[in-house]
Amino acid sequence: MSFALICTSGFADILPLARQNRADPYAVHVPASPWLELLPCAWRIESAGRIDAEGFEVEPINTREIIEKLRALNCPPESIAICLLFSPLNPSHEQEIASALAIEFPQARMVCSHTIFPHLGEYERTLATVKSLGLEVPQQLTTESVREKNKDDLFATQLEEIANRMQQQILDAAVSSVVREAMDCAAALFLPDGRMISQARTLPLLSGSLSPAVKGLLQAFPIEFMMEGDGFLVNDPWSGGTHLPDFVLLRPIFRHGEIQALAVCVLHHQDVGGISPGSVPTHATSIHQEGIRIPPVRLYHRHILDENLMGLLCANSRMPENLKGDLRAQWLSLDCGVQGMQSIVALNDFTECCEAVLLTSEAVTREALRNTPDGVYCFEDALDGDGITNELIPIVVQLRKSGDAITIDLTRCAPQTLGPVNASRGAVWAAVSYFARMLAPHASSNDGCTVPMTLETKPSSIVDPTFPAALNARTNLIKLLANSFIGAWSQARPDHVPAPNAGEVVVLSLSGARSDGSSWMFTEIIASAAGGAPWGPGGSGVSTDVGNTRNTPTEVIELLAPLRVERVAIRQGSGGAGRHKGGDGVIRAYRLLEGEGSISYRGERHSIAPQGGAGGQPGVCASARIEQSNGYIEALPAKARASWRAGDLLVIETAGAGGWGAA
Question: Which of 111, 175, 346, 571 lies at a 20 to 30 A Cα distance from 551?
């Protein structure tokens, strides 16, 4: 069936890019999107014309141009989906196109997106529209769906379902777009001794760092001093936290007066103070410049919120209502966990079942290690500066594998930096946790997976910084560590491991003032690409390894801020060549419509190309720039803060991933 999609100019890749997250965060490889073949580029027709976030026309439609593009195809379309931005607010452009095409292609089946999915969210609306015409990606089996489940698996599945419900409760109740849309949060369940027994399968960067945070909370508040309805909070990187915007909240789960388990969640808060809006200052040189640092504290006592402490937290945020609302979302998540666990902890053999689940995951991980040759496997990479200087910062990974255990040696990594790219040991553990789960994706996700892992770090290094190091920009270091583990492990199993991923995620915080003086702020997380694999090409514009956040819909961004997103597209040709090509990065372009604004850009891979695997070629480096309204182009370094004015265009191009195998 010949199928055409009519979309807003700059958005032809909306289906292949989807929401940039992946269904299984621990699958060893992210493949290329099936939409690239199912709906080829030539059949995705871009349309000039634009409706804004208030439903007003800002650029007229050009139906003649659309008809000419459709006529140029090798055969007339049998089905046409018309999916334009903001059509639920103003369907006139979709209706005008449909009327013109009905005359030109009277035999074609035609559907306008506003009639199928009358809500904002351009990807979801486009997907629903093409599905209504019969175009749908075949269901793919995941590691979870094909594995044979035994009794331990069924118990683990029950726990995971509760953790997933906790996660969904955060998304349902959150205020900030970085949580509600980007999914920058995680939820998990623990035993009272601090071992994770299950987690929501969403964001390894956050879920993988929860175990150190729980241990930090338990050291400050031992189990015997906890009461029913208590809630404990921490974000301090030297008490198990990662960076200051990530608040970890813990609540004990009681039965008959005894603590049986712990419900825990973490959420990235939009602003927690510091010298820059969004609390991710790329030029910070001390933790004191990054926001409010919270040692382990009791935020709730017997279900009662400590209003004085909440007032202190809100007083340190530029967006106090968001902070308060998102903390409430966390508490609702924990309440969901407590309620969901009541029937589980009532089992007579609850503790024994938890121990069995942990032992099963440990056994599966050890089996994966035993099936790999013993040896010492090394991989080197580097960060593009620390935000203060552009000097490369070496990352050196050594994996010493022996039998069914492995030592991860990071002692040769660079000394801690002045700028904020350092990562606490709690944050580094997320990369270790991801690697353990990647080795055995069939295993249930719990702390049993990491028992065979030993982590070695050197104090006062980028992976074990001493107080008061700045570390808000730790994300790309953790990604490069996870990437380096993949690169080193591929030497042990060259036919079973993909090329490294692009190793970049952009954390973009934009803020400013409108012409009426009101302020605005939001954080966007932008993915790069997956490496090619021995069995196929890598995915483009997808979040990889420890990352798994979603992108923010254009229709949400333009409601939040005086911006026009002019392009969201695959960065064609940026993936490395090889027998199996690396995935391409993405291009995102934002135009400021009024007032002035500030840009906090945390990128990577501006000077070091992502490496290929097994003779594959490297991917193309990333870049970012401001195209000023006067014609001047300002290139941005990998970590940058900048200002811009109405009419300026911010363009971000993320790196492509490495190819696998010689072409």
Answer: 111
Q: Is 138 exposed, middle or buried (0-12, 13-18, 19+ CB in 10 A)?
A: exposed
237 close to 471: Cβ distance less than 8 angstroms? yes
Cβ proximity of 650 and 568 under 8 Å: no
**Element of type H or E holding 248:** strand 246-255
| Cα 404 off chain centre by | 31
> Does 623 have pLDDT greater than 60?
yes
Q: Please check the confidence at residue 337 and state whether its pLDDT lies above 80.
A: yes
CA angle (631, 56, 4) in 5-degree steps = 85
Between CA 591 and CA 655 the distance in angstroms is 21
Instruction: Judge whether 395 and 381 are in contact, CB under 8 Å.
Output: yes
**Residue in the block written with tokens 């990065």:** 585
Q: How is the beta sheet containing 196-199 ordered, strand by strand?
A: 196-199, 185-190, 258-268, 246-255, 231-234, 297-301, 304-305
**Mean pLDDT for the stretch of residues 358-375:** 97
Q: Reply yes or no on whether the pLDDT at 471 is more than 90.
A: yes
User: Which candidate, 519, 663, 493, places its Cα nearest to that of 597?
Assistant: 519
Residue 27's SS3 state is coil
Give residue-wise pLDDT tens across range 133-180: 999 887 654 444 444 445 568 999 999 999 999 999 999 999 999 999
Three-state DSSP state, 199: strand
CA 451 to chain centre: 26
CB neighbours (10 Å) of residue 651?
18
Confidence (pTM)? 0.94
CB 298 within 8 A of CB 241: no
How far, in Å, are 17, 109, 451 from residue 62 at the CA level? 26, 21, 61
